[in-house]
C-alpha cells in the first residue's frame, strides 16, 4: 500500500512538472517603463504594449530555453525642467517602439517557472499605434532579463523585468548668430530603459510533455 501511495505521488509530481513547462505561443501584455530623471526632464511611467511569439525548447523536465520575437512600445510622461531651446514642448507623452528578440533559460518547479536571459531591441522609426513625442532611447538596446511565470493550463501568466545595459547620454544645446538673430539648437541625449511587463501567453499547438 505504501509503495502504491509513493508511486502515485511520484507520478503526480512528474505530471505537475511537465504541465508547468513554458510553452510555445503568442504573448500579449502591458508594460511600465522607468526612465531616470535628467537635468532636462522629469519622467513618469505610463502604460505601454508588448506583442510577441515565444518558442520553447525542452532540455529536461526542469530546464528549458525560450526564444522570442516581437514588438514593444514603451511610454513615459516627460516634463521639461528647462526652456528646451524653444523647440520641445514643456510636457508631453514620449514613446519608443522596438522590435525585440529575447532569449532566456527557464527553470520550472510545480506550476511556476523562473526565467533569466538577454533581450536585444532594434528601435523602429515607424509609429504603429501612437503619434506622440519620441523618447530618446538607444537605437540598439541590450537588456538583461529576469521573470517568473505561472502555468494555468490554458494560458500562462508571466511577469518580466528588463534592464538596459546601455549607457545614458546627456543632451546638450548651443546658440549661434546668423547675422539677424540668435538661434538655439538642442541635441537630445539617449535614455536608459528599465521595463516591467505583465503578459498572458497563449499556447499554440500541443502541450509539451
Strand order of the largest sheet: 1-2-3-4-5-7-8-11
Q: How many DSSP helices? A: 1
Taken as a percent bin, the fraction of beta residues is over 45%
Name the CATH class.
Answer: Mainly Beta
Number of strands: 11
CATH topology: Porin
Q: What is the percent of helical residues? A: under 10%
Radius of gyration: 22 Å
Number of domains: 1
Q: How is the main sheet built?
A: 8 strands, antiparallel, barrel
Shape: elongated
N-to-C series of helices and strands: HEEEEEEEEEEE
Any low-confidence stretches, pLDDT <50, length ≥5?
A: 1-19, 172-177
Mean pLDDT: 78
Content-based structural category: mainly beta
The appropriate CATH architecture is: Beta Barrel
For the record, give the distance between the C-alpha atoms at the N and C termini, rounded to a whole number. 28 Å
Amino acid at each position: 500500500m505504501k509503495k502504491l501511495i509513493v508511486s502515485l505521488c511520484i507520478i503526480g509530481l512528474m505530471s505537475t512538472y511537465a504541465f508547468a513547462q513554458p510553452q510555445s505561443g503568442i504573448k500579449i501584455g502591458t508594460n511600465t517603463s522607468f526612465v531616470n530623471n535628467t537635468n532636462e526632464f522629469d519622467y513618469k511611467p505610463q502604460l505601454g504594449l508588448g506583442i510577441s511569439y515565444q518558442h520553447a525548447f525542452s532540455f529536461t523536465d526542469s530546464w528549458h530555453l525560450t526564444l522570442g520575437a516581437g514588438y514593444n512600445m514603451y511610454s513615459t510622461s516627460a516634463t521639461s525642467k528647462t526652456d528646451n531651446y524653444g523647440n520641445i514642448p514643456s510636457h508631453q507623452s514620449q514613446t519608443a517602439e522596438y522590435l525585440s528578440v529575447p532569449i532566456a533559460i527557464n527553470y520550472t518547479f510545480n506550476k511556476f517557472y523562473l526565467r533569466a536571459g538577454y533581450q536585444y531591441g532594434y528601435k523602429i522609426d515607424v509609429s504603429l499605434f501612437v503619434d506622440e513625442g519620441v523618447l530618446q532611447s538607444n537605437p540598439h538596446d541590450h537588456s538583461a532579463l529576469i521573470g517568473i511565470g505561472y502555468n494555468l493550463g490554458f494560458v500562462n501568466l508571466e511577469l518580466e523585468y528588463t534592464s538596459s545595459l546601455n549607457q545614458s547620454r546627456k543632451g546638450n544645446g548651443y546658440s549661434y548668430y546668423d547675422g539677424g538673430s540668435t538661434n538655439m539648437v538642442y541635441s537630445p541625449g539617449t535614455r536608459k530603459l528599465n521595463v516591467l511587463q505583465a503578459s498572458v501567453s497563449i499556447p499554440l499547438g500541443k502541450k509539451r510533455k
